Amino acid sequence: MLVSIFHPLFFFSLTLGVIISISSPTWFSAWIGLELNLLSFIPIIAISKNSFSSEASLKYFLIQALGSAAIIASASFMLISPLNTNLIIESALLLKLGAAPFHFWFPQVMEGLDWFNAILLMTIQKMAPMILISYTLTNTLNQNYLMMFALISSLIGAIGGINQTMLRKILAFSSINHMSWMLMSMSLSELYWFYYFIFYCIISSSIAILFLFQQAFHVSHLSSTSLTSLTKILTLISLLSLGGLPPFIGFFPKWLIIQQLALNLQVLPLTIMLFAALITLYYYLRIIITSLTLQSLKTSWYKLQLLPAKLFLPILMMFNLSSLLVIPSLVFF
């Protein structure tokens, strides 16, 4: 009963905190929005039925409080020191995002969440810090500083997910890798960031919802004989789309960023990010091959929600296959 009553209220205040942060004229009001967002997300984590939710909420609170304290401390540094305080604010926001090398908390918190809260952490919770980061990119120093974190995040997100077998940790490291593309697009243009963020939110949410329907938390759970062929094929397409493999729809925003980096002659950052993207495709393919080639009997944890799945799966199929028509038309016309 507590979940049904208070969950929409906390979700509304969480969204309100994001809106306050991205529309605020001062850093103080942006900080207030971030705090409202934080204090709304912690109860959403804590009231879930996951046994690790309390640990995840405590870790999330400590990290976010540290980032908020750094934002407040930057005001004092602005008065006593001529240092570029935007670098301090930018570092605090990157800590809140979980970008490498501040990524240590992100996979651990993801492991303690259910799939719905994992979707919130991967999508909505990234919106306000990323938009606030765009406000700090006032000179070349800040842009180069952000590019350095983007390249580190691409490598950490790719290498960290290789040896993982838990699906939530794999999506966590995948999110860190995609964060590097979003940070790089932010240094190029806010419009490119908007395109990438929208596509990433839709694709990552669709994969998490697929895993929610299947009640899958481990790679071996995707090998169940109870899963239909349509579900397995859609999981395959969604993972390849998340990895940015052409001609799936997830390649479209990466294509824009690759084109812009090539036009700016930024060959080294482009090479590093493409190399990291290939590594992420490797562990996506490992999940796909495992689910298609291995078979396990139906277990006690498996409970497929048939009615939502029947309504949702055709929509996902149409979205992920739409790029088969969109991208060729963009090439020829």
From TrEMBL:
One of its GO terms (biological process) is mitochondrial electron transport, NADH to ubiquinone. Residues 25-79, 87-280 form the NADH:quinone oxidoreductase/Mrp antiporter transmembrane domain. Its main location: mitochondrion. It is a multi-pass membrane protein. GO terms for molecular function: NADH dehydrogenase (ubiquinone) activity. One of its GO terms (cellular component) is mitochondrial inner membrane. Its EC number is 7.1.1.2. It holds the Pfam family Proton_antipo_M. The keyword Electron transport applies. It is found in: Mitochondrion inner membrane. Coiled coil: none annotated. It catalyses: a ubiquinone + NADH + 5 H(+)(in) = a ubiquinol + NAD(+) + 4 H(+)(out). The chain crosses the membrane at residues 60-81, 87-106, 118-138, 144-163, 194-213, 233-253, 265-285, 306-331. It is an enzyme of class 7 (translocase). Keywords: Electron transport, Membrane, Mitochondrion, Mitochondrion inner membrane, NAD, Respiratory chain, Translocase, Transmembrane, Transmembrane helix, Transport, Ubiquinone. PANTHER family: NADH-UBIQUINONE OXIDOREDUCTASE CHAIN 2. Core subunit of the mitochondrial membrane respiratory chain NADH dehydrogenase (Complex I) which catalyzes electron transfer from NADH through the respiratory chain, using ubiquinone as an electron acceptor. Essential for the catalytic activity and assembly of complex I. Core subunit of the mitochondrial membrane respiratory chain NADH dehydrogenase (Complex I) that is believed to belong to the minimal assembly required for catalysis. Complex I functions in the transfer of electrons from NADH to the respiratory chain. The immediate electron acceptor for the enzyme is believed to be ubiquinone. Belongs to the complex I subunit 2 family. This is NADH-ubiquinone oxidoreductase chain 2.
